[in-house]
Design a protein that fits this description.
The structure is a homodimer of 465-residue chains. The first copy, chain A, is α/β, with parallel strands linked by helices and 465 residues long. Helix content of chain A is 63%, strand content 6%. In chain A, helix 5 crosses helix 7, helix 8 crosses helix 10 and helix 18 runs antiparallel to helix 22. The longest helix of chain A has 31 residues. Chain A is elongated. The termini of chain A are far apart.
Amino acid sequence: MSSSNPLLLPELRQMIASNDAEEMRVFCSALHPASTSEFLSSLEAGEIWTILLEVDATLRAEIFSYFDEDLQVQIIESCPREEIAKLIEEMPSDDRVDVLEEVEQDAVDEILPLMSTEEREDVELLRSYEDDACGAEMSSDFIRLHEGMTVGQAIAEIGAQTHLMETVYYLYVLDDAERLVGIVSAKDLLRRINRQDEPIEGFMKSKGTLVTVDANDRREEAIRLVEKYDFVAIPVVDCDGKMLGVITHDDVLDAAVEELVENAHMSAAVDPLGDETYLDANLWTLARKRFMWLAILLFGAITTAIILKFFNDVTEQIVWLVAFLPMVVSSGGNCGGQAATLVVTALATDEISLDDWKRIAKRETAMGAILGGLMAICGYVNAILIYAFGEGSVSFVDLLIVPLAVFCVVFISNLVGALLPLLFKKMRLDPALMSNPFVAGLSDALGTFVYLWLALLLIMPFAAA
Amino acid sequence: MSSSNPLLLPELRQMIASNDAEEMRVFCSALHPASTSEFLSSLEAGEIWTILLEVDATLRAEIFSYFDEDLQVQIIESCPREEIAKLIEEMPSDDRVDVLEEVEQDAVDEILPLMSTEEREDVELLRSYEDDACGAEMSSDFIRLHEGMTVGQAIAEIGAQTHLMETVYYLYVLDDAERLVGIVSAKDLLRRINRQDEPIEGFMKSKGTLVTVDANDRREEAIRLVEKYDFVAIPVVDCDGKMLGVITHDDVLDAAVEELVENAHMSAAVDPLGDETYLDANLWTLARKRFMWLAILLFGAITTAIILKFFNDVTEQIVWLVAFLPMVVSSGGNCGGQAATLVVTALATDEISLDDWKRIAKRETAMGAILGGLMAICGYVNAILIYAFGEGSVSFVDLLIVPLAVFCVVFISNLVGALLPLLFKKMRLDPALMSNPFVAGLSDALGTFVYLWLALLLIMPFAAA
């Protein structure tokens, strides 16, 4: 999506005022459509439409496709229905479904009947799929071939089939029941340009080498396959093998970025924003999404408060213990958060699977011992520097409680942080829910308990004496 | 990268034992190369090479390109140098540079001289760029045209230029100094298949509509442009406008995923793993990367310990205060972490820029007040439930210190979490360095100070009396 660029605003307004159709046409075709849309975005919806009406329908749809979704919705809702219906017919079939989701229902109900039956049915098919299903991401604009065709006939079809914008790179061979039986790449076709009579069956990819997704598969599956095979587009079929559409490389890139951003948000305990951007999201909606998780995390803090109340006697008698409480618990929280993030991202990018749990457990046991040991040494040095000298000093032996607690808490938090995302995945929950603040909360409660319990066992008997 | 699949292991071993060349050829061409590589991966390097030698060089390179990098390195290091040099000549120019980085220098020094001069120079050019520069990601295999060509001549060039694997979708028009002057899309060429004498100049994209990256630009720039314009490939030029190569959609997808995973790791205070995966990374290397940040974060904990020592008198006299210390600081840490993650991901996906800082500050001031207020109410309810009744109860008025501190800490941490990534960006540091544990550490120290200082001001005077 492009942002707006007010650089040419006065010139554009002038152009509209003077109603110079030729100049508008030249302006719209001089730059890449993405740049044209950037300049136009600084105008009002009505002004933009005045300019766009001067260019041909294909370019108009292309420029329109680069506007921010908010602006697209505004134009669709405010401009003449008949012209908008034509615009929507020209749009890539996946994009128009996305934007129509945001347009008010009254406007949609008026626009859809003005579209051709075929295009309207296409919109309705795509709208019938779940938001994160492959069917909702696909475009139904692709080039169809028949099995018996030759190179020459295939090339002629490219000219004949007009809605080919998204997928000229692959041509799809369907049988009479519209089932996908082969894929011809534009590359292979171009290489055979001088052998027009060669049948496509000889070089098309067929049966064993076809890779498809089901329209009801989650879009992660399409991302995974496109990453694995480096496809420009992947075909979407229904349960009978009938070909419904294609998901193209640009949609996969957008979806992959969206998935990873959602993961990052969940890892920081923010409910995913969905289609909204950070700055455009409604303040109250965002506050609700953030508060929901903060409130859940508060339960961890309550547990910690109760543990601290329970150990009241210990902290009352050995006041210096309190100084190192944040160090003990945050060491565990930071280390557990690292482990959780490493496992969550490795799961998200298919580097590891549930079957690797034993290897991960073994690895993180060793890692916890190493990091726990190193952190314990640091913790002991700090404890000595802060409390072993001067007024109210504490003995070196008593201070050993700090490294002991740090080691235990780091070791346990690290293992818990690494394994809980796997458990969540096993339970078919999103592993990213095992968010870092959640790990930190667990490790606050756990760390507080371990630290004060060790003190109760090891120091209190002597302190009381 | 594909993983290994041992399903056909016995059959493959049998095939090698019986030395059945025809069967090996059939096996290698029956499936998609990515799937073939998955089955082959379960064999030893030497066995794989025996099978691959039976297929033609192009398919061999394609199957090879889908192996894990570790296996690629193993094969390159262990198989006959002359054959390997030929294999590397056939590989996409960006991929071979990546894998040669990992091969031991002795082997590289022996292999490079066996390659053709042209291919060797190409390897050396790509190796001269920084790891995260566009020049290191690009492939120098693209189809070159001249300005005066016709449709027919352009189509003939596709057949003539053999190394066109990566970029048949665009053809690049260069002038005599090899500067990029136009781009012809395969789509536009195919549509004009029956007008072979039409000059390409009439329909190629030229001057104002060309979008390129500089070889020294960081790869984020290529990702941004491909996301914006939905390109299948973007041309890479040097400072004189000379065309050096292209970055293709699959490389952009891989790079975008890698960038976001690096971001996620940094946000959890893990130094990026680079090319290594979580399970393959050396335990000690990973331990070092994790410990480095844990040690830095420890300084936050030391500050907190010193603050707590400073307020010793307060916690000694009003022991119940300690119970709510974790709640106060973790509320701030969680809220600040949310704000930091939202801003860091919005920066990474170009939703916001530095110029938006005023809007962000205003927004997060309101957000901090809302969330601070809500969390304060929750905190007060908890404080009352835990400490207002039964033995050692505390007055409702004294407990007001808890919501007061929660509000201040949440408000400040939220604003700091949102603005520090922007400050880091302004200082040309990576905003993701403003990691969530770092925000949590700041908010531990800050929260502890605010909480105990408020207690010193508001409760101590009366407690002492």
